[in-house]
Amino acid sequence: VFSHVVQAPEDPILGVTVAYNKDPNPIKLNLGVGAYRTEEGKPLVLNVVRRAEQMLVNDQSRVKEYLPIIGLSDFNKSSAKLIFGADSTAIQENRVTTVQCLSGTGSLRVGAEFLARHYHEHTIYIPQPTWGNHPKIFNLAGLSVKPYRYYNPQTRGLDFQGLLEDLGAAPSGAIVLLHACAHNPTGVDPTLDQWEQIRQLMRSKGLLPFFDSAYQGFASGSLDADAQSVRMFVADGGECLAAQSYAKNMGLYGERVGALSIVCKTADVASRVESQLKMVIRPMYSNPPIHGASIVAVILKDRDLYNEWTVELKAMADRIISMRKQLFDALQAKGMAYKLLFTLVIHVCTPGDWSHIIKQIGMFTFTGLNTEQVAFMTREYHIYMTSDGRISMAGLNSRKVPHLADAIHAAVAS
Ligand code: LMR
């Protein structure tokens, strides 16, 4: 009965790891999936996470009972404070409902399912480009997905005019997906001034913001700074949705810990919205897993652990920033050598301006390399990355920078 089933393609991001794992060459380097690695190229479990886990193990009163449908209460409260701010009026007025979900993807999906059932407008505008899973999540929930201009390949920066035009032309009430910070895959974020203009436009047209916050603390190293876009929209008293992930900022990738918050106009509405979120979640997976959310709740509630977390988070963000600098310097040096060589022989200009590597922020650099150049780097240099030219800076380390610079240089020159 299943003989008609055709082979599905590998996932454009997670499939890169599958290909990487099959490569026997020891020089191989995986810059595909956004997963943090140490300078030694190893996955990192934060010390603060180990400490929290130890506290959980030592606490004999802890049991493995089912969580409520909406998850761990302490986790939900602390997550809302983390993203909206401890002094958020919306939280004080009980206008926010927060439910624990399965990381960022699960939070987006639960939010999308809720909107498909209870929101009058079924079109969601997503930035062009965006994380490859976004259109699939929203389509499968029954929303209709449309792009809005975001990235300008010429400037390798924000197409702000295009963004304003496209959102300005969107039907009133449409949903708009916004990356809270560290846009994936481009690493290009609006400035605060631009965020304010986006907010004004969206509110004037009644567009509904749906934030994806997967990198809070990773963009700048500051949890507050990276939540400013979201907080601007909440401060104006209007509605919004926010999906949070603890995969990157606490390194809890495989624990699948995240939260969906819906900010409503009144406490009464928030309570009814929460009751309907339970109707979405129960037939999907009944209730979320307990372990990862308990780790987060312990860390967010204990001042010492929280402070330790911010230090470790900043160290990860700083290491990524330092990788940007090192790669930029290595490519600059190669460009200079290349230019010198060719100006002596024939008149050829430098093979590229790589300043976007240090201007872009967050986990990823959108290199501008095309599909053929990426394939060349994988084939000849065993460097794995997504075919759109995105590289995970978090997967790089100082020892591998020269190898990557060689590969990029050869790919551009080929
Ligand atoms: C990524 O973009 O690499 C991460 O968000 C991981 C994923 O699930 O795609």
UniProtKB/TrEMBL annotation:
InterPro entries, per database record: Aminotransferase_I/II_large, Asp_trans, NHTrfase_class1_PyrdxlP-BS, PyrdxlP-dep_Trfase, PyrdxlP-dep_Trfase_major, PyrdxlP-dep_Trfase_small
Catalytic reaction annotation: L-aspartate + 2-oxoglutarate = oxaloacetate + L-glutamate
Cofactor(s) needed for function: pyridoxal 5'-phosphate
Gene3D superfamilies assigned to the protein according to its UniProt record, in alphabetical order: Aspartate Aminotransferase, domain 1 (3.90.1150.10), Type I PLP-dependent aspartate aminotransferase-like (Major domain) (3.40.640.10)
Example of a GO biological process term: amino acid metabolic process
Residues of the Aminotransferase class I/classII large domain: 27-408
Protein EC: 2.6.1.1
Gene Ontology MF terms: L-aspartate:2-oxoglutarate aminotransferase activity; pyridoxal phosphate binding
Note: In eukaryotes there are cytoplasmic, mitochondrial and chloroplastic isozymes.
Keywords linked to the UniProt accession: Aminotransferase, Pyridoxal phosphate, Transferase
Main EC class the enzyme belongs to: transferase
Assembly: Homodimer.
Protein name according to UniProt: Aspartate aminotransferase
A GO-annotated cellular component: mitochondrion
CDD domains found in the cross-reference section: AAT_like
Family statement drawn from the similarity comment of this UniProt entry: Belongs to the class-I pyridoxal-phosphate-dependent aminotransferase family.
